[in-house]
Amino acid sequence: MASNEIKILIFGLGGEHYATDIKEVERILGYQEPTVLPEAPSFVKGVINYEERILPIISLSKKFRIGEDINNDDKKIIVVKRASNKFGIIVENVYEVRDVNSDLMEEAPPITATIDKKYISGLIKLGENIVILLDLEKILSSEDEERIF
């Protein structure tokens, strides 16, 4: 892999293509229905047992206000790798892991639709598709973390 390439995981959400740096991903799990927690923030779907620990599950669809999670057989949970306080995100499907040349990346324009620009690392042009590169480290604010963990 050349130094100007990054390895990304491409996944679907709200009918669009999103991606994250593979370094932020610990594991991809098959979907399991989380246990709902009372009075949790609206974007927290619940918790699951993951490696003998409680793992909060986040609905990016609700966090980004792009609708409800779609129920399909391809739905997955991506476990986000962090120094502490791991969490899972629900995605509609996982497409692929691939190397992308940083020349294909552009900064997100100010008009970036409904998703707060602070979550977006950039936009990647892949053929006819534009893939939104998310910075999963910034998905949860410190306030969110205090309410969840």
TrEMBL record:
Gene3D superfamilies hit by this protein: CheA-289, Domain 4 (2.40.50.180), SH3 Domains (2.30.30.40)
CheW-like domain mapped to chain residues: 5-145
InterPro entries found in the cross-reference section: CheW (IPR039315), CheW-like_dom_sf (IPR036061), CheW-lke_dom (IPR002545)
Origin: domain of life: Bacteria
Signal sequence segment: none
SMART domains on file: CheW
Protein name as annotated: Chemotaxis protein chew
Organism: Clostridium saccharoperbutylacetonicum N1-4(HMT)
Recorded name of the encoding gene: cheW
